Amino acid sequence: MKPEPLEKYSSAITLSDMEIFVFPELMVSLVLANMMSPIIWQWRELDCFKKLEGKSEYRKLMRLKQFIIDEFEFNLDLETWGLTSKAKEISRFKPFISPEDIAKSNALFGYHGDQYYFDVDIRRHFGLDKYDSDVIPYWKTETIEAMNAFRYKEGYKTAAGECVSFAALYAAAAFIVCGIPLEKIYMILTPLHSQNFIDLQDGILTNNRRLVTKTMWFNGSEISNKAQRALRNENIIIVAHHTGYVHWLYKEATIDKESYKTFGQKLDAYLSTELSLPLFANFLRTNRDEQKYFQVCRECHGQAQFIQAEVLFHYEHGSNYRIADKTFDKLLSEVSDEDFVRYELPNRIRCDQLEEFISKQKSNLRNARDRSALKEFLKPVIPHAEQFVARLADFIYTKASLPKLDKTFSPPDPIEISVEQNREGLIEYLQDKRKSHTTADLAFYAYRDMESCDWAPFIKAAIERNPASIQKAAALSLDQVYQWLDQLENHSIYDAKRLAQPDEVNNYSRGDGLEKAFLLANVIRERNPEQDIEIIADKRDILLKADNEYRFDSNKGLEKEIRIP
Is 294 helix (H, G, I), strand (E, B) or coil? Predict the structure, then answer.
C-alpha cells in the first residue's frame, strides 16, 4: 500500500478526531463499522425495544435516548488514549492539509472559537488549557466495542465515549434499532463537537447522550443553552451522509448536492421559529437580567393581580409547570397569594399587553420594520430596547455556518442499505460495495476485520499510535511487561477474527494473545526502533521473536507471519 492511502487506511484503525478531520469519509466508515457490529443488533432483542415493534420511528428514538443515558456515560478524560505532539501530527498530515488550516479549525492546535468561547474560556472547560506546549492528547473516537469496554476500565461502571463516538453510535442505532433510514441522518462535525441531525418531525439533534427536539432547542433551559453552543458559535467543518461528505476546507465534495441542499433547508427550519409569548418567556428564562422589566397579570374574583416576572420564574424553577404554556394556570396556582399585588407595577411591561402586541403585529424579527416596531413598544420601559430586540432575534433565529455550496460535487454514489435488511445482508452488501467504494472499504478497517483486510494499516497504527500502553510499560522491563500481559484476562473486546489495538488492551485490561503480542511489539519498537520483530500467528499459538521469544495463546484462529522491520 502506498504511503498516502496507508495513512488513511491506518487512520480507520485508530480513528482519532484529527484523523476524521483530515479524512472525513472515516465518519461514515465508523458508523458502518458500528452497524456491522453484533452489539447494536442485540439491543433489538431487549424487552424495552421489542415491545415497541410497530411503533413510530420517533417513539423508538425517544426510548433509545433513555437507553443510552442509562447505559453510557460521557467521557472527557482527554488522556484516555495517551499523548502525542503537535509537531508529530502536523508532519504526519502535511501532505493532506496545511498547518495553518489545522490551527484555524482544530481545538488541539490553537483553535479557540469565536468571542463566545473566549468569554466562557472553552479551552479551560475542556481541559485543553494545560496543553500549551508541543504535547497534546491523542483524542480518539471509539467503536461501539471500545465504548462498551469502558465497563472494564478502572473508575467506570458503565459504557462510555466522547462526542464523536456518541454521534456514530446514535447514527448506527437509529438505523438498526429505530428503523430510521440513512437518508434521514446527517452527521455534523465542528472543531469542538460532533452531533447528528435526524430528519424526523421538526428535526432532532443528537447531543452526546441526549436528544434535542425543536421545542427543546427554544425552551431557554440551561441544558438547551449548552446544546446550542456548537451550532451558534462554530463553523461546521464536516457534514457527512450516506451519500458522502462536504468539508469546510476541501474543494471536492462527495455528498449528493441535492441532499446537502435539503439538509441546509431542514436545519435552517429547525433553528428558526416564530415569535410568540411562550417564546418570549423562554428568552427571559435564559436572560434573567431582563426579567425585571416585566410583570404577569392574573384575574382573581374579577380583580386584576400582578406579580414580578422574576418571582414567577423563581417558582417555575422548582415546578413541573411553565410560564406561558398550557400548564401556566397550574403554575399560578402554586404561587403564594402574598407574592401578588392588586396594583399594576410601575416601569414594567404587562405580559398580557405584550401578547396582544405580538398577536396583532405577527412580528418577523428578520424584518427591520418589525424589529423597529417591537423596539418602540419596549423602549418606554427598557433603556436598551434595540440591543434587547437584537438578542431576542438571535435567540429565535440561529444561522448555522455550513460549508458553502461552491464545491466540486462528485457524481452521487450512496451507501444504499434498507432498514429491512438483517445484519448478514448488510455485511454482504458492504463486502460487495467495498470493491469500488472507499468509504465502504474503510468501514471494514474500522470494524477491524483482519480476515478480509490488508494487515499493513493495522500494524502501522499499532506501532505508531498507541502511546498509552507505552506509558504504562515505561517503568517495566520487557520480561515484566510480558508477565503483566500474561496476567491480563485472555479475552478480546472484539468478536470473531477482529483485533483490538494495544491501547485498547491496556485500557480495558484484557486481550487475546495476538493482541497482547502487538502491545509487546509496540513497547519493543519504542525502546529499540532498529530491532527486527516477527509475530507468527498459527491459529491458537502466537510467537513473538525479537531479542527473545515470547509466546501467547489466541482464540482468533488467524494464520499470519508479520515482520516489523
Answer: strand
